[in-house]
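Colleagues,

For the teaching module next term, I've prepared a clean inverse folding example: a structure given as tokens, and then the sequence designed for it. I'd like students to try predicting residues themselves before seeing the answer, so please don't circulate the second half yet.
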């Protein structure tokens, strides 16, 4: 089942491909919540960067973040574990933006931008246990579609 998305994901994974990848490791409700989180992060990042955001994307983001995500049964059952991980991902995003704005982007700021994938791995751990997550961690983390040379190249353009 495909989950409605605000927009297609950047990098090597489209939102549909990301969903297919997540479906291998997670139940539908967890995948739905993660896709909504990913979409919201993309919209908020665009707003922060001053990139255009369509009214449709803004409207869907508003609904997802204030209604659909909190109502999601997976999130409701796991919010005590998920919220600190999301908060940490946001702090890592802020640190990456600060480094980039001050022309100190490097391999560390590249990794800080990937905080979402820490949340994905936590979801896999919550749903399947630590042994499963450890066994499949590399495959799961390969969802991250941007590589370091491409990231650094964005600042040389």
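(Answer key — instructors only)
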């Amino acid at each position: 089942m495909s989950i409605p998305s605000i927009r297609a994901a950047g990098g090597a994974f489209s939102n549909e491909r990301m969903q297919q990848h997540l479906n291998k490791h997670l139940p539908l409700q967890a995948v739905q919540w993660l896709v909504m989180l990913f979409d919201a992060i993309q919209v908020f990042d665009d707003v922060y960067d001053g990139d255009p955001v369509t009214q449709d994307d803004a409207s869907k983001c508003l609904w997802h973040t204030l209604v659909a995500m909190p109502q999601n049964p997976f999130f409701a059952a796991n919010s005590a574990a998920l919220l600190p991980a999301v908060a940490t991902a946001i702090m890592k995003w802020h640190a990456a933006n600060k480094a980039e704005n001050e022309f100190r982007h490097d391999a560390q700021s590249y990794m800080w931008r990937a905080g979402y994938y820490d949340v994905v791995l936590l979801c896999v751990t919550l749903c399947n246990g630590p042994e499963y997550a450890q066994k499949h961690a590399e495959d799961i983390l390969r969802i991250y579609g941007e590589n370091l040379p491409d990231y650094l190249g964005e600042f040389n353009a």
